[in-house]
């Protein structure tokens, strides 16, 4: 059996305009909205690093400079914290800058997720790679990408994160059809982007974590634009599944769609309750609320 290449690189598409969060995102990237005590994208970067990712390629656009600044060194701030004896805060800031190597690529036009992935082709080369969406927050004992790495190592093929969703929400997702080959693992035969529930091949939705072989770039490069003039990653993955195996994996963990306002609020409350410093006081506050007063 040929040696399975290690997944070392991850693409973070972060060039979207964040229109669902306007006006909060008019001057600040959606990915930098704070969840409890750190920006939402940091949760996903930490997941990637904990899963063994060594290099992150951040696909950005106009107005996204704050992301680059957040993960860079800030000499003035570090000097100030050190001079004031704020060693805990200093350590936190230094950890952010040193956790992984970053490269930034500008997506000049908002041409969709598939195009964002294609922008990183030259940096990925002929290696398998991960794609993580910065507004899909997954709270798990074992990082969800790390779980997917094990599936990739076993099958040597692309792996998509899956989640069972209610039928009345199926039209919001890309959905797979296929057969189960192991516990939580499916061989993907078809993918449909946002189908009506009557036409959905299953209730298994694709969530914002992918491990992909470099062959997908061949299909992305030739992929015609679809609805909204965008290059859809799902369409390229469907063509990939026609020439090589693609698997889906139902990960273990709680997923928050922090790209929606209600999902963002749910993540804020539940991650706040799990925060060791804030959780107890926050829990007491919530217990004291008269919900009928709102």
Strands of the largest sheet, in order across it? 5-4-1-6-11-8-12-10-9
Q: Specify the biggest β-sheet.
A: 9 strands, mixed
The coarse overall form would be: globular
Helix content: 25-40%
Order of helices and strands: EEEHEHHHEHHEEHEEEEHHEEHH
Distance N to C terminus = 62 Å
> What's the number of helices?
11
Number of strands: 13
Q: Strand fraction band? A: 15-25%
**pLDDT average, as an integer?**
92
Architecture overview:
- There is one protein chain.
- The chain is of the alpha/beta class.
- The chain is 34% helix and 24% strand.
- It has eleven helices and 13 strands.
- It has helices spanning 40-50, 65-70, 75-83, 87-98, 113-118, 121-124, 144-155, 216-222, 233-241, 261-274, 279-287; strands at 9-13, 34-35, 38-39, 55-60, 101-106, 129-132, 136-139, 158-164, 174-182, 185-193, 204-212, 246-250, 254-257.
- The strands form three sheets. The protein has a nine-stranded mixed sheet with strand order 5-4-1-6-11-8-12-10-9.
- A hairpin with a 2-residue loop joins strand 9 (174-182) and strand 10 (185-193).
- Helix 3 runs antiparallel to helix 4 (87-98).
- The longest helix has 14 residues, at 261-274.
- It is globular.
- The model has no long low-confidence stretch (mean pLDDT 92).
């Amino acid at each position: 059996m040929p040696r399975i290449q290690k997944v070392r690189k991850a693409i973070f598409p972060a060039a979207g305009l964040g229109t669902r969060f306007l006006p909060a995102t008019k001057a600040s990237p959606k990915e930098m909205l704070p969840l409890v005590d750190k920006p939402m994208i940091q949760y996903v970067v930490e997941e990637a690093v904990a899963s063994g990712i060594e290099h992150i390629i951040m696909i950005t656009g106009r107005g996204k400079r704050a992301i680059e600044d957040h993960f860079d060194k800030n000499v003035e701030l570090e000097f100030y914290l050190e001079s004031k004896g704020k060693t805990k805060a200093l350590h936190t800031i230094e950890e952010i800058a040193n956790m992984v190597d970053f490269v930034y690529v500008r997506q000049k036009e908002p041409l969709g997720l598939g195009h964002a992935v294609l922008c990183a082709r030259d940096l990925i080369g002929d290696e398998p790679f991960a794609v993580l969406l910065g507004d899909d927050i997954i709270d798990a004992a074992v990082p969800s990408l790390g779980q997917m790495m094990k599936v990739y190592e076993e099958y040597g093929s692309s792996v998509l994160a899956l989640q069972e969703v209610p039928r009345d929400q199926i039209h919001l997702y890309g959905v797979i059809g296929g057969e189960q080959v192991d516990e939580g693992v499916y061989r993907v035969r078809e993918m449909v982007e946002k189908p009506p529930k009557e036409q959905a091949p299953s209730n298994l939705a694709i969530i914002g974590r992918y491990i992909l072989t470099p062959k997908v770039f061949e299909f992305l490069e030739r992929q015609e634009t679809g609805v909204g003039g965008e290059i859809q990653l799902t369409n390229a993955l469907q063509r990939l599944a026609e020439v090589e195996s693609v698997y889906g994996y139902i990960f273990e963990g709680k997923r928050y769609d922090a790209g929606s306002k209600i999902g963002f609020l749910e993540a804020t409350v539940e991650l706040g309750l799990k925060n060791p410093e804030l959780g107890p006081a926050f829990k007491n506050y919530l217990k004291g609320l008269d919900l009928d007063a709102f």
